[in-house]
Amino acid sequence: MKIDKAELLTALEVVKPGLANKEIIEQSTSFAFMGDRVVTYNDEISISHPVKGLNITGAIRAQEFYQLLNKSKKAEIELVVTDNEIQISAGKERAGITLAQEIKLPLDEFTLPDKWHSVDPELLTAIKFCAFSCSKDMSKPVLTCVHVRKDGIIEGCDNSRITRYKIKPLAVKTLLIPVSSAMHLTNLNITEIAEGAGWVHLKTTEGTVFSCRVFADSYPDTNKFFDVEGIEMKLPKNLKDILDKAGIFAKRDFSSDQLTTITLADNKMKLRTESDAGWFEAEGNIRYTHEQASFSVNPAFLKEICEKTQACILGDRVLKFEGDNWQHIVALLVRTR
After folding, report:
1. What dihedral do alpha carbons 259, 265, 267, 269 form, nearest 10°?
2. Final residue of a domain: which of 194, 223, 252?
3. Residue 324 burial class via C-beta count within 10 angstroms: exposed 0-12, middle 13-18, buried 19 and up
4. Is the CB of residue 264 less than 8 Å from the CB of residue 286?
5. Do residues 93 and 133 share a domain?
6. Which residues form the domain of 233?
7. Staple partner for 134: which of 104, 156, 190, 202, CB 3.0–4.6 Å?
């Protein structure tokens, strides 16, 4: 069968996130071909994508097959299936890669649903926006997930910051999607969603189906943290660059220990970071005529949200940032006036 090489490579690139780094599960480092679709599975996610003209059943080692196609300069390749291999012809070049005709991936763990629901095009924007606030601490696994609520509120939290994004309500139950899986979604054009037993399935206009395990637990109630009253202000435009330098001296083993001290007084913002390696100080202009206020904050966390906006509210032990359809809270270690 003759196949457009670019189309096949595109399909392989789409499904590559579903490959495992090590073959703990048999064939989890392989591309599985199921008729006109190529499939990957690594126990956390499974991705499938259609390929026009393809008609193969079996599994082949992903690394060798992908590299061979990627290095070929021909626009069209020919695939011939024998009892135990796929033969690839491209011009005067030929190669054979071992084919396991039996697909042993445990794809029967989930069944793709018959009923799908359309989703707000902002869903993936919301997931990506909230993902950076998710925790990496596996001792609190629920916080390593993006909280996708049925009412359209998407959240990420790591006990030091919370991000919330509002979209249209979803036609599925509330989901906890591990952030490690969710980040593979952000380059896909998701248009439909469906739920299964322990899995969520998302479909694109191109026919890609992205399936991932969901976490079974209850997410903490974060509503109370967004009711913030305080002083409205606008942080200096160059604060992002200052925080980038401050981060050099804020590095610690744990993010909760990575702190920069900020003092506000007399229309000035003074910043100081210190460690065993040295210290860094900087000053910026800010419209602030209230009593002196000092607090400590993770410079990396503050820098990330300053890329979105400099407007915020200085509340009791928190900074609140807000956009048209999102809110972000950064916890402050200390605050005095």
Report:
1. -10
2. 223
3. exposed
4. yes
5. no
6. 228-331
7. 156
CB 192 within 8 A of CB 161: no
pLDDT, tens digit, 9 for 90 and up, residues 210-241: 999 999 999 999 999 999 999 999 999 899 99
> In this predicted model, what pLDDT tens digit does every residue of 47-102 receive, in sequence order?
999 999 899 999 999 999 999 999 988 899 999 998 899 999 988 899 999 999 99
Angle of helix 62-71 relative to helix 5-15, nearest 10 degrees, comes to: 140
Chain centre distance of CA 247: 23
Residue linked to tokens 């299936």: 81
For the segment 165-200, what is each residue's pLDDT rounded down to a tens digit? 999 999 999 999 999 999 998 789 999 999 988 999
What's the pTM? 0.87
- The DSSP code sequence of 227-288 is ---SEEEE--TTHHHHHHHHGGGT--SSGGG--EEEEEETTEEEEEEEETTEEEEEEEE---
What's the CA gap between 157 and 174, in Å, rounded? 16
Number of domains in the chain: 3
Position 302, amino acid? L
Find the helix or strand (DSSP H, E) in which 304 lies: helix 299-306
- Are residue 200 and residue 255 in the same domain, yes or no? no
Return d(Cα 176, Cα 198) in angstroms, integer: 10
Q: Is residue 197 part of a domain?
A: yes
With respect to residue 336, please indicate whether it lies within any of the assigned structural domains: no
User: Could you count the other beta carbons within 10 Å of the beta carbon of residue 208?
Assistant: 19
Q: Quick check: is 274 in a domain?
A: yes
Q: By the 8 A CB rule, do 28 and 46 touch?
A: no
75, 124: one domain: no
